[in-house]
Structure formats: C-alpha cells, structure tokens
Amino acid sequence: MRPLLISSSDISGGAARAAYRLHRGLQNIGVDSQMLVQNKQSDNYTVICPESKVSKGIGKLKHTLDVLPLQLYPQRDRSAYSVQWLPDNLAAQVDQINPDVINLQWINGGYLQIETIAKFKKPIIWTLHDMWAFTGGCHYNGDCMNYTNSCGACPQLHSNKEKDLSRWIWQRKARAWQDLNLTIVTPSHWLAKCAASSSLLKNVRIEVIPNGLDTKQYKPIEKSVARSILGLPEDKQLILFGAMSATSDPRKGFNFLQSALQNLSQSGWGEQVELVVFGSSQPKKPTELGFKSHYLGRLNDDISLALLYSAADVMIVPSVQEAFGQTASESLACCTPVVTFDITGLKDIVDHQQNGYLAKPFDVDDLARGIAWVLEDEEKLQKLGSNGREKVEQNFTLEIQAKNYLSVYSSSRCYEVQ
C-alpha cells in the first residue's frame, strides 16, 4: 500500500503536525507513505515539495492571492476563510507519483483548487481538520447552520445576500465533487456528525479516527526537572494554556480563561498559583489575570512541549470549537489533567472527573470550579494524571491511528474504478 498524504505544510501548524504524525506512524508499521506539500519545513526525504525558487515563490504568493475575493467584504470577521480559486498543477504531480490512494489533509492557503480534487484518478480519503470541506469557505461555523443547506448570506462575511461569495464557493464544491470516490475521516465524533448533517457530504462514507501522537516523545517527565529546564518556579501550582495564536484567536477562548482566572484569584488562589502561556509572547500591555504569568512564546518541537506539559499541574483548553484538540491529548500523555468545556472534539479526549474536568459550555464559573477541583488535592491530581496517560495509550497512539487508516485505505481501493 502506497498512500500519498497531501497537505499545505508538513509541520507548520496544528493540522500539518497531525498529518506529519500520521505519515510517520504509517511508516513505523511498514507502510510506504509519502507526503506532498507546498511548504516543507522538515528534512524528511519522504516529504515532497517544489524544489525551484520560482515554485516556492508562487506557493508563498498563492496564500496572499487566495484571500483577494474577501476584499469585497471589508466588514467580515477575521477568522479563517478559504476561497481556493487559484489553479494548480497538483493533478499532474500526483499522476507522476502514482500512489495507490490519496489522503487529503489540510489543503488550504491557496494550495489546492476546489476543482482539482475531481481530477485525481485514485480513491480519495480526506482527513478533516476543521469544517471547511463542507462549508461555503469558513473553517468553523460558529452558530451558523447554513452549511446544512447551501450557504449564502454568510454571517462571517457580514453578508445579507443569498448569492454571495459563500454561495459561490458552495456551488463550486457541489458541482466538482458530486461523483468523487471519496471517504471522509474525522478525528472526532462531533466533526463526523457535522459532516454527516452537511449538504455537501451527507451521502459520503464517514469514519472517525482520532489523531495520534508519539507516546515515546509525549510522556511524563519529572516535574522538578521540567521546571528547572524551563526556568519555572518549583514552589507554585502551574496552570498551562496554549495554542497557535493563543491569546489572539477568539476560537481558543482566552477571554473565558481570563474571567475564570479572575474568579479563582478572588477565591484566594492568588498566592499559590501561576499561569504559563505558550503560543504567544508577552503582549506590550499584558492582560490582568489575577496571577503572575509566564509567556513562553511559540514552541514548535515535541521535546519542548512534552517538558512544558510535564511542568504544569493542569492544562486549560477553553476553546469554542475544536475538530479534535491536540493540546489536550498531548497534555494527558504527559500525565497532566485537562480542564475544558463539554463541547465539540474535546469530549472525545477528556472524561469528566476521570482525567480532567468538562465544564458547562462557556460557563466561566464552572470553568474556574473545574480548575480548583483538579488542583485542590494532590492525590486526586496524581490519579487524574495517570488516568489521562492510560486514555492516550489505549486510544491515541500512532500505531493505533496508522492501523485504522491502513484499514480505510485498503477498503477504499475495493471501490476503485479501473
């Protein structure tokens, strides 16, 4: 079996890292996996990308050009929105590689034109890392359910016209993808349910395979050692929060964390707790959180992240929507409990009061209660941590993920039209 994973990048961003982990996991079980990317940052020879300076320059330019149609909507939200209208030569590249199956990953940023997917001559497995595949351009829908119909009058575009950019993107997808040999894979049951309710993918085979991670890299490290290496205090309880653009992306829920921490501070936790933030550097005017805060900036390697999770006492993931929630599974792998809202993909990772705490959605008082509940008893904290590690070993290893994907790859080939 020779799968080809197609991704905008190999290790830049959460979705890319998830795809690359799958790629390595497949190789670990003897599968001849390759990746085709627009932006290569690893030195892995099995990751293929344009070699010429011209091709690389075009790749960087396409991301800028892809969003040009959005200029028609100056009042739009600044959340991720992909048009995918620029032509590409990916079909020819894939033909030359000649894989057995194609596994699309996160292909946005102008990398792959919507219509190109219909040109692939092999069975297609599409791993969804967000909702874009079945919307009119947004990556997460918020409260909008237009994707169950045909989009149009898009709230994120602040459009009140039915025939707007979102309707045009939806129609392009509907025309191009109607006869695809397609299997959808989602990392969570929530995302699978959303895809199944969409107008674009409601008749497509959908499988749920959680994202995997290397449990030999993501493992508990002695807390005092981890804190010493990272320069963090050893006499405090540490609350951890982090993601790409952790404090600036509204979907990551920093505003909820801020309110919850202020509640905790007023409840008398201020002297014994400090906050650690990764994914963002300290702002010029830091937000008052009620606790001393350590901003560590962006951490891109697995070793640093494993150290950080191990250094913390609890990880907070207050996201509004997550296709899966890799920071949560990474934290559990390092024996650090997770407090999050009882929503979306995170419900597949965190078991309430077993390896963390599922707060009522967007209830900052309950989020604060969850943090306090985890931290209040050392024996309980240790038990939650060991339960979290067990959950990862039983559900989220690279080997489990790779074997499940291999099964999907093999079954998809049975439907290939020669």
General description of the model:
The chain is of the alpha/beta class. Helices cover 35% and strands 14% of the residues. It is built from 12 helices and 13 strands. The chain is globular. The two termini are 17 Å apart.
Note the main attributes of this structure.
418 residues; alpha/beta; seven-stranded parallel beta sheet; six-stranded parallel beta sheet; 35% helix; globular
Indicate the topology.
Elements: E1 3-9, H1 14-28, E2 34-39, E3 47-48, H2 53-66, H3 90-97, E4 101-104, E5 124-127, H4 165-176, E6 182-186, H5 189-197, E7 205-208, H6 223-230, E8 237-242, H7 254-269, E9 273-278, E10 293-295, H8 302-311, E11 314-317, H9 326-333, E12 338-341, E13 356-359, H10 364-375, H11 378-395, H12 398-413
Parallel strand pairs: 1-2, 1-4, 2-3, 4-5, 5-6, 6-7, 8-9, 8-11, 9-10, 11-12, 12-13
Helix pairs in contact: 1-12, 6-8, 7-10, 9-11
What number is the mean pLDDT? 94
The rounded distance between the terminal residues' Cα atoms is 17 Å
Helix content: 25-40%
Rg over CA atoms, rounded to whole Å, is 22 Å
Number of helices: 12
**Main β-sheet, spatial strand arrangement:** 3-2-1-4-5-6-7
Strand and helix order: EHEEHHEEHEHEHEHEEHEHEEHHH
Poorly predicted regions are none
Strand percentage, roughly? Answer: 5-15%
Oligomer: single chain
The class by helix and strand makeup works out as alpha/beta
Total number of strands: 13
Largest sheet: 7 strands, parallel
Shape: globular
What is the gist of this entry?
By secondary structure, the chain is an alpha/beta fold. It is 35% helix and 14% strand.
